[in-house]
Amino acid sequence: MEWLESMNNAVEYLEANITEKLDIEKVAKIALSSTFHFQRMYHMITGVTIAEYVRRRRLTLAAQDIISGGKVIDVAYKYGYETPEAFTKAFGKMHGISPSASREPGSSLKAYPKLSFHISIKGDKDMNYKIINKGSFTVIGKQKRIRAVDGENFKEVPQFWNDCMEDGSYKWITSKAGKLGVLGVSMDLQNFSEGFFTYMIGVEKIKDTLPKGYVSATIPAATWAVFESIGPLPEAIHDVTRRIFSEWMPATGYQHDCAPELEVYPEGDIYSANYRCEIWIPIKK
């Protein structure tokens, strides 16, 4: 499959140029993707950003260089750190010890392996979807900056929902829900490469004056792939989201169109095995 080969070629390029400044545009071109789509795909499939992958690989290789007798200052500059102090801090954060201590017999170090992509054909679950076009519209609600490193987004987003339920925000939002229902909106996705994005819990714009602490945002016109999720939240929707990026996109040739992603939640028991909601992904060929 062309997609699989291009993704692995991109990883090979990263490895061959691991000591050079990261050129994400060139890496994405090798992957036959837009820069945004490549970074979003990579994060959803692996759970780490490109920058985080490169950082971990550099520190893994740096530990080997240190153990082999390399000077800390030389290894620091080799792997792109401006000062030995910055390198020592990053090294300690990953390995739990200083570079010099890693030379001691019996020292425990962490290794982050080189990644490769493989196809896993399961065929045990259908992915029901439809393609729709929708003009631009405005959403209002509560929003929060979410971390996108080490899968933290899968913890922070559900916690944000819990917080809004506890402080009364969710009750107000649901009282204003229109035809689409309550929305979970992932915005500023271009910042995934820097390890964060913005998440809003809201509804389509209403005429009422917004209470303090609520904001509005414009969702641009787009073509959307709309997927059905069946099952208790948040597990069911997390599973479908991962499958969209790891199975559906590679199989169909669609790419992410660098616009907000939507989760559409109708009324119902969100913990039921039969609860149905939707995921809207902006796409382009």
What is this structure's SSE topology?
Layout lengths: L1 H15 L7 H7 L4 H12 L3 H18 L4 H7 L5 H12 L33 E6 L2 E11 L5 H15 L1 H7 L6 E6 L8 E9 L10 E5 L2 E9 L4 H18 L2 E2 L4 E5 L10 E9 L1
Antiparallel strand pairs: 1-6, 2-4, 2-5, 3-4, 3-8, 6-9, 7-9, 8-9
Helix pairs in contact: 1-2, 2-3, 5-6
Give the topology string: H per helix, E per strand.
Answer: HHHHHHEEHHEEEEHEEE
Helix/strand/pairing category: alpha+beta
Q: Gap between N and C termini, in Å?
A: 17 Å
* Number of H- or I-type helical stretches: 9
The proportion of residues forming helix, as a percent range, comes to 25-40%
Shape by Cα distribution: globular
CATH fold category name of the largest domain? Multidrug-efflux Transporter 1 Regulator Bmrr, Chain A
- Write down the overall mean pLDDT: 90
CATH structural architecture of the largest domain:
Alpha-Beta Barrel
What's the structural domain tally? 2
Number of strands: 9
DSSP strand content: 15-25%
Backbone CA Rg: 22 Å
CATH class of the largest domain: Alpha Beta
> Mind telling me the CATH superfamily name of the largest domain?
Regulatory factor, effector binding domain
Show unreliable segments.
none
What does the main sheet amount to? 9 strands, antiparallel
